[in-house]
Amino acid sequence: MSKSPRYRIPARLHRVEQELQRSRFITTVAPAPTVEEAKAFIARVREEFPDANHNCWAYVVGPPGSTGMAGMSDDGEPHGTAGRPMLTALLHGNVGDVAVVVTRYFGGTLLGKGGLVRAYTGCVQQGLEHLPTTERVSKARLSVEIEYASVDGFRRMLPAHEAEVVSEEYAATVGYQLLLPVTRVETFQTALLDLTNGQALMEVLDPGE
Hints:
Elements: E1 6-10, E2 14-20, E3 23-31, H1 35-48, E4 54-61, E5 69-73, H2 83-91, E6 98-105, H3 112-129, E7 133-137, E8 139-146, H4 151-157, E9 164-170, E10 174-181, H5 185-195, E11 201-206
Antiparallel strand pairs: 1-7, 2-3, 3-6, 4-5, 4-6, 8-10, 8-11, 9-10
Domain UPF0029: 144-199
GO cellular component, one term: cytoplasm
Protein name: YigZ family protein
């Protein structure tokens, strides 16, 4: 599954805590744009809570609901009672590029398999409920060459296409390198050709993801 051009991702690390049947559950959620970064985050949380009974985890790298790059671990809890329900909660959380660790300090009361599934599912849902998010936008890099007479109109049209000027070069004509969302490339090209009466030169240097 290819990456979607835009989706919600965690804006920063976020942590919530709750007590269930005398066990302390600490849920830590973080951005995970790559599998390597997801695993590094998990390792950091394990180092932070080395005395915990369990540091169960799950991650989804890619758009919300995608399973191509996903992982999970029960970390010593009965098989299927932590990692799987955590991953399921992530997949239904409408957030991509996300990793979560639920740290458990056992309080002496056994929850049973059903209780553990509910606990770990609820921890992830609680962690996502007030998670600060931002938008991941795949961007294309374009090269554009226009006549001097079109520069003012060209600059006025950039904000409507969320285009960002990376560089500009003045010679016989004016050359630009731009970044803009991949979903805007076609409409931008149409507007550019309309503006310049078909005289602009445009090349996609990097189509983005």
